[in-house]
Structure formats: structure tokens, C-alpha cells
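hey so i finally got around to running the thing on that chain from the lab meeting. sorry it took forever, my laptop kept dying and i had to restart like 3 times. anyway pasting the input first so we r on the same page abt which one it is
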Amino acid sequence: MIEECLAVECRIRNDDCPLAEATGTVDLEVRAQPPQRRSDDYELLQFSSPRCEPLTRILDDDDRISYLHVSRTDGRSRYRCLSKHPCVVRELIDGGLIIETLRYRDGEATVFGAIVGRDALKGVMAAAGETVGVTLERVYPLQSEAEEAPSQRWDLTPAQEECIRTALEMGYFEIPRQASSEAVAAELGISKSAFLERLRRGEEVLFEQLFR
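ok and heres what got predicted. didnt touch it at all, straight out
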């Protein structure tokens, strides 16, 4: 049996990786996947943002980026690039942090994830802190695996849960709306009609149980 598993939120400042520096000069939020280290020591970065040509130009002009591919769908851009410069996020991953969400804005990164044990957390924070400013914002025990996941508790399918969670994270439910149905569908890798169908079916299930 593993020891206590902790949910962690931390903020990274003063990271000099290309993506962090680029977001320091443009006014938008970038949603990124955890960087993947290749056998040639390059970092594969995959991220998305509202369409922003200045961001694309900054990354394209950065000598530390050896490859940059951009695809665009309904106001959002999805990027894939290879970076010669390692991100500080890599220090957290190497120390044992399992990253769930990673967001960049104004040159800073906000990381949400999980780690096994407080000793491991202390080690990660100490190692990353020696490199750059890393601040622990929140830490709390994860719910037991014996407790129901949202999809089980509310009788949602996993696809419906993912659909609602992604829409919420991207600001689809905000007023004014921060992401269109096309953008959320692109993030999920499905069609707009599939997204709307899953969303409406999921909402119907939730509302029926809430107001039953």
C-alpha cells in the first residue's frame, strides 16, 4: 500500500524556458501538457492558446526552438515544438510530481498535480527552488480511491465527465464565454456536434439528479 497521496498546486516564477518567456510578452493564457524529454535531450512541448500571431512569431524567432508546428481551429491555436532549453517543470516531474494541468500566463506557470508523500514533496520543492522561484500555493490529501469518482457519483460516462471538465477549464460556461464549442471540441479531439451531444446529455443527467 502506498503512503499518503497529496494534491499539489504550485506557481513557478522566473523560469527562462521559451514558453514561459513568450507568455511574459503577450496577454493570454497558454494551456500546456507536461513536457516530454526525448532521447536526444530535446523537450517536446505541446500547448494551446487563443489565436495569437505575436506568440507564434516570438516562438518561431527563438533560437532555442528547433521545430514549431501550429494548427488553428476556430480562434484557438495548437502548438507542437522541440525546445533545446529544459523547463523547470521538468525538475518537478523528475522529482515525482504527476502533473494534471499546466498553465502559463505573464511569464509564470501554475501547476496542478499529485505526489506520493510529504517527504517527496519536500524534495521536489527543494530541488526546484534551487533553480528558480517555486511557491507552494496549496496542498491537501487526495480523496481515497475507495470514494466515487464524479462520473460514478453522478452516473456520467467518462466521456461526458471529460467533456464537462474541459469546457469548465476553458471558460465555456463563463459570461462572456471564453471559449467556443468549436474550440472545446478541438481540445478534446472530437467534432463540434459530438461535443455538444456529450455536453447536453451530461447536463441532463446532472440536472435530473440535482432537481429530482
